[in-house]
Automatic annotation (TrEMBL):
SUPFAM superfamilies: P-loop containing nucleoside triphosphate hydrolases
KW Signal (keyword) present: no
Extent of the signal sequence: none
Pfam families: Spore_III_AA (PF19568)
Coiled coil feature spans: none
Source organism per UniProt: Acetanaerobacterium elongatum
Gene3D superfamilies: P-loop containing nucleotide triphosphate hydrolases
Domain AAA+ ATPase: 157-299
UniProt-recorded name of the protein: Stage III sporulation protein AA
InterPro entries, sorted: AAA+_ATPase, P-loop_NTPase, Spore_III_AA_AAA+_ATPase
Key words of the record: ATP-binding, Nucleotide-binding
C-alpha cells in the first residue's frame, strides 16, 4: 500500500463530511491544507479547521476567518448527524463502546471526538444521544518525526522511554515513527493499538508503515495487549499510546521483569504535571523507563523540549514522600522516594 501524503490525509478526513462541506476543505490551497490538524463541526456554528495552532472559520466564498461572520458556513444538525453515521460506517450499534468513551477511530487512523448528551446506567456512561459536535483529528504519518529521539537516546541500544506532551503535540506521530525506525534496525516491535491510531489497521492490514518487524495488536486494551505480546510474540520492545491505568502499569512492570523495553506516551506538559500521575510515577520509580522525553507543545511533531533521565525526575521530587507545593493548591502529590 502506497503511503498517503499529508494533503491526501486531509482530503481523506474531509471525505467524512457531507459533500457541501467537504468541498471547502478540498479547495484549500496546498499550503493551508498541509497545516490542517483538526476539522470541527458544531451544530448551528461555523465549520472550523485548526491550522497548526489556530482555529479558523470557513466563509461562503471559501476563505478562512478568525472570527464568525454573517457569511460563515454554518453546520446544521443534519450535517453533524450525517458525519457521525459515516464515522460509524452506518452501524452505530457496533461502535457503542467507543462512542461511550467519547471517540471513534476510522480507516487510516483519523480520530473523532464526540460531544452529545450522555446516556447513564448505574452511574456509567453507556452511550451518547443528540450528538452536538464532532472534532476530527487528521492522522499524520511523518517519516523522521522520531529522528531527534533516535539520535539522542537510541543510538547504541533500544531504551525504555516515556514520551510526554500536551494534546496535539505529536506524541502518537512520534510513537508511530519510532516503531518504524526500530523495526527497520532489526528490532522486534509489538504495537498495542487500543484506539487504532498507531497502525490504522483496516481489515487486518496496517494503513501506516510500522516497518517489517512489527506485530500489531489492534483494538486490545493496553494492559491485556501488553501481556499477550510478552507471552506470545517475544518482542524486544512494546509500544503503546496514552498509558495511565493500574492495569497498564502492572503490565509494563511485568514486561520490565521479562527484559522487554516499553515505549509509551502520557499527557503531561512538564515534570510538574507528571508528578500528579500516580501510576506513571510508580513505574518511573521501579525503573520501567530510562528516559522521559517532553515534546514542545506546538509546531512540527517530534520537536523535543527536554530529555530527562528517569532517576533525575525522581530525585527532583523525592525530598519528601508526599510532595506539597502551593502550586497544586496544597493538595498531596504522590512522588515515590528515590531508588
Amino acid at each position: 500500500m502506497e503511503p498517503m501524503s499529508s494533503l491526501q490525509r486531509v482530503d481523506d478526513a474531509a471525505g467524512l463530511l457531507a459533500p457541501h462541506l467537504s468541498r471547502y476543505i478540498y479547495e484549500l490551497s496546498d499550503d493551508k491544507k498541509g497545516q490542517v490538524r483538526e476539522i470541527r463541526l458544531r451544530c448551528g456554528k461555523p465549520l472550523a479547521v485548526n491550522l497548526t495552532d489556530k482555529d479558523l472559520f470557513f466563509q461562503q466564498d471559501g476563505s478562512l476567518s478568525s472570527i464568525c461572520t454573517l457569511k460563515s458556513v454554518v453546520v446544521t444538525k443534519e450535517d453533524v448527524s450525517e458525519c457521525f453515521k459515516k464515522l460509524c460506517g452506518y452501524s452505530v450499534y457496533s461502535h457503542q463502546n467507543e462512542i461511550a468513551s467519547g471517540f471513534l477511530t476510522v480507516k487510516n487512523g483519523h480520530r473523532a471526538g464526540i460531544c452529545g448528551t450522555a446516556v447513564i446506567e448505574n452511574g456509567k456512561v453507556v452511550g451518547l444521544r443528540d450528538i452536538s459536535s464532532l472534532n476530527i483529528r487528521v492522522a499524520r504519518e511523518i517519516f523522521g518525526a522520531a529522528d531527534e529521539i533516535m539520535n539522542r537516546i537510541m543510538t547504541n541500544k533500544t531504551s525504555s522511554v516515556l514520551i510526554c506532551g500536551a494534546p496535539a503535540s505529536g506524541k502518537t506521530t512520534v510513537l508511530r515513527d519510532l516503531a518504524r525506525q526500530l523495526s527497520l534496525r532489526n528490532t522486534r516491535v509489538a504495537v498495542v493499538d487500543e484506539r487504532g491510531e498507531l497502525a490504522a489497521t483496516y481489515c487486518g492490514q496496517a494503513g501506516n508503515n510500522l516497518g517489517p518487524r512489527c506485530d500489531v495488536l489492534d483494538g486490545y486494551p493496553k494492559g491485556k495487549g501488553m501481556m499477550i505480546a510478552i507471552k506470545c510474540l517475544a518482542p524486544d520492545v512494546i509500544i503503546c499510546d496514552e498509558i495511565g491505568t493500574e492495569e497498564e502499569a502492572n503490565a509494563i512492570h511485568t514486561g520490565l521483569n521479562c527484559g522487554v523495553c516499553v515505549i509509551a506516551s502520557a499527557h503531561a506538559y512538564d515534570s510538574t504535571e507528571l508528578y500528579h500521575k500516580k501510576q506513571i510515577m510508580r513505574l518511573i520509580a521501579l525503573g520501567a523507563f530510562e528516559y522521559i522525553v517532553f515534546l514542545k507543545n506546538v509546531g512540527t511533531p517530534g520537536r523535543v523540549q527536554e530529555v530527562i533521565k528517569a532517576g533525575e525526575i525522581i530525585a527532583q521530587g523525592s525530598r519528601s514522600h508526599l510532595y506539597r507545593n502551593n502550586l497544586f493548591g496544597g493538595r498531596d502529590i504522590y512522588v515515590p522516594q528515590a531508588y
